[in-house]
Amino acid sequence: MVFSWFGMRKRRVVAPTLKPRQEKVEREDKVDLKDMSPDVVPFLAQVAYFELAVFESLTRAVTAAPTLAAKEGLSAAAGEVLAKHHGLVAELRKKKVDPAEEMAPFAPAIDKFEELTGGRNWYEMLLGVYLTAGFLDDFFVRLVPSLPKALAGRVEILLETDRSAEVIVALLKEGIEADPTLASRLAVWGRRLVGDTQLVARSALHMSDNRADDEQRIEPVFTDLIAAHSRRMDELGLTA
Question: Domain named Ferritin-like: which ranges (predicted)?
Answer without folding.
Answer: 40-197
